[in-house]
């Protein structure tokens, strides 16, 4: 039983804790609302189902860090297991009634809480050892690295984590001691190993069992509501915001970015905090600072100034620091470039999508970076000087190589390739792309594809000098205006010819046609050449000799794999070829490592201490492969350069179309 004063104190403490939590949460949501509106409430049932499965299965934390994720899962599941107990203890302080005593499965529930108290303690200890003794780079501010870290984050960087982990551990201990007191009084019985263990420890105090129960009830429930007060002021707010963020996930590929409405909006990218979308800002309060994004970031591994983790952490700190100004309806005071990340870091991103693939909270790093690039290019007119030739080439010649359009068809010299303006219509348009039109090495890919199509009797045509860049490079480096100009021109041209199906060898073109042109009325069926080759081989329209003697590995292009989920078609083609040995690189499929060319990096110099393409090339070489298979002209160029730069001997880089053409049965 509780005295009147105890009830008054308890109720006051609970009211204060709840009030403080709600007030703090609303304060942060008011900061989020200072951003640009970003509707994410379509398909609510689909979103709710995905969120439930994604969060409660804890697959989000276990799939890439099994042991660490399992420890986190123990704590997460324990939170829900103990929610009934917390409600019961809260009710018991005010009313002489027990929720647990009225549960149909009381004994089973008590056993579950007892077991989870141990699992949670194991999880807390394991995570504390990892964080404070093993000190992985993903959790601590990097020393001796050019990564921009907010000054507040450098001061006692793990103090809040220590407090939270310690409090969770104490909550479990105090619960077990409370349960031990109930056992000592003969109230609870069953399979309760932790409660019986602590009751044995407290056996000398058997006569004080009621007092022990009362004391540890107070310590436990006070800890629970103290935790509620602590949550909003730490990254552990993700308990609430993380679930919401997963619900708000954008059902688009990682590299997708919302189009700008130049006619009706005066918005030219993110220069200050209020230029970001509300989802961009909400991400800041959903981040758990686990560093998974940083672990897989090719720019960070190459020791550039970019860390996707610290960019998001800096965003949160910037919002809190500028809150008085933002909540008065004023734009942010400080420029986001220089506050969230350095100028070098902004341009180091390859938009490979690895960060978003591994993020358990569905944080959208790439759109945040691209919005800042838009701001620099469109509003400030600043970008790396190396991009000048590529952007001028796009503006003046219709391609980032800056080559005269009249040379677009030189790759097809000697081949009976039809041009669409001559034949007027075609069931299949072969979109060659700029790389395969102007890069001497990539031209061989275009020739291989065309020869395969001709051999198989596939009716197709190309645009020739009417083909222009899809605009992908312009959009990835922030020049949205130039991208939209090409999108509209290309869509108009394709519709005029009645094009319905497009075959492309470039994953960047594939992504743009498939996911971004529909925003401008360009709805076409688009097929990547590996998908087309798989179909031709499966239907017997192509037959290969198979069994070629070289050892092969395959590099997954980011814009084919992670951004569009195509991993099987290239491997199906390789399986038909029957190489002497096929061996996956350690990082493959959705964990594949970028070649370094995406996000406009194809036309920029490396800024890190290491080169992304060399890191990936070394990984391929270490498989023992004699041939590195690719399915992207950009990847082809980066990996070929990589083999030369690292001095690899006897290693070739070939597109899968080249391998098929070389091994084709030509009776």
Annotate the secondary structure layout.
Elements: H1 4-32, H2 44-56, H3 59-62, H4 66-92, H5 106-134, H6 151-154, H7 159-184, H8 193-201, H9 209-230, H10 238-247, H11 278-286, H12 292-296, H13 298-301, H14 308-321, H15 323-326, H16 343-348, H17 354-358, H18 365-380, H19 387-397, H20 420-423, E1 429-431, H21 434-438, H22 440-456, H23 472-476, H24 480-496, E2 501-504, H25 507-516, E3 525-528, H26 529-538, E4 551-554, H27 568-577, E5 581-582, H28 612-621, E6 627-630, H29 633-645, E7 652-655, H30 656-662
Helix pairs in contact: 1-9, 1-11, 2-10, 4-5, 5-7, 7-8, 7-9, 10-11, 11-14, 22-30, 26-27, 28-29
Notes on the structure:
The chain is mainly alpha-helical. It has 4 domains: 4-31 and 49-233; 273-380, Fumarate Reductase Iron-sulfur Protein, Chain B, domain 2, CATH 1.10.1060; 394-519, no CATH class; 538-662, Rossmann fold (3-Layer(aba) Sandwich), CATH 3.40.50. It has 30 helices and 7 strands. It has a 4-stranded parallel β-sheet, sandwiched between helices. The chain has a 3-stranded parallel β-sheet with strand order 1-2-3. Helix 27 links the parallel strand 4 and strand 5. Helix 7 packs across helix 8 (193-201) and helix 7 (159-184) runs antiparallel to helix 9. It is elongated and about 100 Å long.
